[in-house]
Amino acid sequence: MINFSGTPKIETDRLILRRMKRSDAQEAFDHWLSDERVSDNRVNAAHKTVSETIERIDKVASNYANKEFCWWAIERKADRKLIGEIDLYEFDFSTCNCEVSYSVGYEWWNQGYGTEALRAVVEFGFRYMNIHKITAAHNTDNPASGKVMGKVGMEQEGTIRHMIRNSKGQYKDCAIFGLLQEDYVKKNISNQTSILKLNDKEKRTNKYE
Could you tell me if 152 and 118 are in contact, meaning their C-beta atoms sit under 8 angstroms apart? Predict the structure, then answer.
């Protein structure tokens, strides 16, 4: 059974994962949602106006009252800049499996932020939500994303041809990665905690405030 607790604040060494809010719109637009270098790896087209971003964030924020909704903004601690987003979704209640996706602004690529955010969310999913399996996919022409998945313990399970069609009408093959909770534990990944500053109550209850 999945233990849902919504979208709690999560802290890592360099990042704060938190709920998105309307005031994030300009940074989200500037840092990744309007950037075609990022959108080429997403299904949705790059935003042309901030109003598109506001509409999107309002839709995300409206779901935070639902405990089964898990969508974080990725914020750097050093300068409080918003650099991306990450979410758990497609929860299957019969298997307790789900998927994860993430985007990081181009300026912050190849600096370990995607890995740090993904590692924390995977840890949260397995240790606190009791997810059985987490899967992710990336376009095969974006192998850097596969390296991020591999660094958190995920393994490639196959490739699906023409799995998605991007905003330019191009079909993309996708590599599928997955990680089981039991393998996460066996690899001792669960002992390499990425989530900081848990108080005694949170440690006892496995929940965040």
Answer: yes
Compute the radius of gyration of the chain from its Cα atoms.
17
In the chain, what are the helix, strand and coil shares in percent, each to the nearest 5?
A: 35, 30, 35
Spatial distance between the Cα atoms of 57 and 149, rounded to a whole number of angstroms: 26
Instruction: List strand residue ranges (DSSP E) for 48-128, in order.
Output: 70-76, 82-92, 97-104
Q: Residue 192 has what pLDDT? A: 60
Q: In what order do the strands lie in the sheet with 82-92?
A: 10-11, 15-18, 70-76, 82-92, 97-104, 133-139, 171-180, 155-165
Residue 182, burial from CB neighbour count under 10 angstroms (0-12, 13-18, 19+): exposed
pTM of the full structure = 0.90
For the CA atoms of 190, 193, 198, 202, the dihedral, rounded to the nearest 10 degrees, stands at -10
Q: Cβ(175)–Cβ(159) under 8 Å?
A: yes
Per residue in 9-32, pLDDT tens? 999 999 999 999 999 999 999 999
CA distance readout (Å), 54 to 32, 51, 188: 14, 5, 41
Place of tokens 């935070």: 64
